[in-house]
Amino acid sequence: MPSNFDSTSKQYDEVFTFSNIGKAQRQRVFNYINPIIKSNRKLNILEINCGTGEDAIQFGGFGHDVIATDISEGMIAVANAKKRSKNVTFKAQDINTLSVGLFDKKFDLIFSNFGGLNCLSNEQLSDFIKESSDMLSPKGKLILIIMPKNCLWERFYFFLKGNYKKAKRRNTSKSIIVNVDGTNVKTWYYNPKDIVSLTETLYKTKKIKPIGLAIPPSYLENSFLAKNPVLPILKGVDRIITGTFWAKYADHFLIELEKK
């Protein structure tokens, strides 16, 4: 898996992490995972595709021991420059070479946010899921935030622009090249049922939720949709429409899995 994000690492926080849309979507993720990470139990957490480290730093702030990994040396450099608690460690690591032997402990939670796993082919994703089960403690959780195939916002936006091919670009089992802040990234899309199918022998599905059904994709940050008074209204819609059915139509979806 090549590292494509070194060139975008320095502006990633400005473009996404601290953008209005980025903060709104992250808030939805934490709304669903707060019951786990705000519990009194101290967790061993492994984060995959940690980017510039915002989630890992929040996990560490709750007192958990966190190892956060990303293939991009640039992303890890930005993460390491941030103030954080001593229980958070950042490490450059290719997800395709993850194995039990790399760590001296089992994890209570393995977490991947905002489509990092969409950079994996079906075969690579299947391998990761098998490896993740071996790295988890009994009843450990795997929580993934993934981009589905049927994002309503994307279809509507590109349809209005007259780009009908791009409006349906996610709805394929093949990879496509997606431009992420000037970087071309080979990307696969997965609906919730695809992840359930890949995980059902090793995991029980506990929760599937839409992330960004009304909140738009981050490439619309400069539009009126990301400003007051529109964005607060869209955030309110996302707080109301939380059913599993809508997960495949959002910008991302969250799936919480428990090791059998």
Short description:
By secondary structure, this protein is α/β, with parallel strands linked by helices. Helix content is 34%, strand content 23%.
Terminus-to-terminus distance: 29 Å
Uncertain runs are none
The gyration radius over C-alpha positions equals: 17 Å
How is the quaternary structure best described? single chain
> What percent of the residues sit in helical stretches (DSSP H or I)?
25-40%
Secondary structure: number of strands:
9
Strand content: 15-25%
Shape by Cα distribution: globular
Label the structural class. Answer: alpha/beta
DSSP helix count? 9
Largest sheet, in brief, is:
7 strands, mixed
The side-by-side strand order for the widest beta sheet comes to 3-2-1-4-5-9-8
Mean pLDDT: 95
User: In sequence order, what are the helices and strands, one letter per element?
Assistant: HHEHEHEEHEHHEEHEHE
